[in-house]
Amino acid sequence: MYRCVIIDDEPHAIEGLKSYFLKMPALELVATYTDPVKALKEITDEERLDLILLDIDMPEISGIELAKIIRNNTERLIFTTAHTKYGFEAFEVRANDYLLKPFSLAKFMDVIQRLFSFKNEIFSFEQGNQKDVQQDFFFVKSSDDNLRLVKVRFKDVVSAESKSNYVQLHTISGKRILTYMSLSEMSKNLGSERGFIQFQRSFILNRNLIDSIDGNVVTMDGGQKVTIGDYYRKHFHKFVDDHLIKAKRKV
Q1: Domains of the chain: residue spans and CATH
Q2: Is this structure's pTM higher than 0.90?
Q3: Does residue 194 surpass a pLDDT of 90?
Q4: Using one digit for the tens of pLDDT, what is the confidence trace for 82-128?
Q5: Beta partners for 70?
Q6: Cis peptide before 11 (omega within 30 of 0)
Q7: Are strands 77-81 and 51-55 parallel, antiparallel or unpaired?
Q8: Which residues pair with residue 77 across a beta bridge?
Q9: How far apart are the first and last CA of the chain?
């Protein structure tokens, strides 16, 4: 999964892009912002993103000025604007592309296809995801065991924890497996279609193995506790609301 963010002061522009994201299951929209100042505060403190879609004409701080600050926090940057006059400024801040509003789904997909090397992963849609989900295990090199290949079943992974240049997998049996890999790379291999989702800067959780939730603290099967990060809190609360059974009658 590729972690993406949209920054645009026009809510309808964000809603339009959200509909495009639904056509591309490999792109995970982790946050949207109508306030560029809020985006600046949150993005600069979080793990590097795969893509930022950024409007230019915004109040308080322009997209060009914002890009100068957050450019190193994303692998790819696309400007989305209704004006053609910012081409040179976009080039100066190393933008990967420039989408002129309004743009079609076909235009958007063409740009995404050129920017991401794993084209089949992005454009496989439901059929590709179903094929991947059918594979119920994977192998990793264990850094604690002379790089021996260890078989891990997806359903047994409770969480993946970032450990500097390594990732530690926590399994339902209590076993911990340390492997040389970034958390972003592990996220793409685990996949949200299997129930894995990032709710904290240093953790990916298997939402199928959540035991209980107390405020912003999640207890996983096996007892592991993880505090939801501020950056992911809105996304987490939406996940809870989507899965919460509510009584219609008043207490």
Answers
A1: 2-126 (3.40.50.2300), 135-242 (2.40.50.1020)
A2: no
A3: no
A4: 877 767 777 788 888 889 988 999 899 888 888 875 444 444 433 34
A5: none
A6: no
A7: parallel
A8: 52
A9: 41
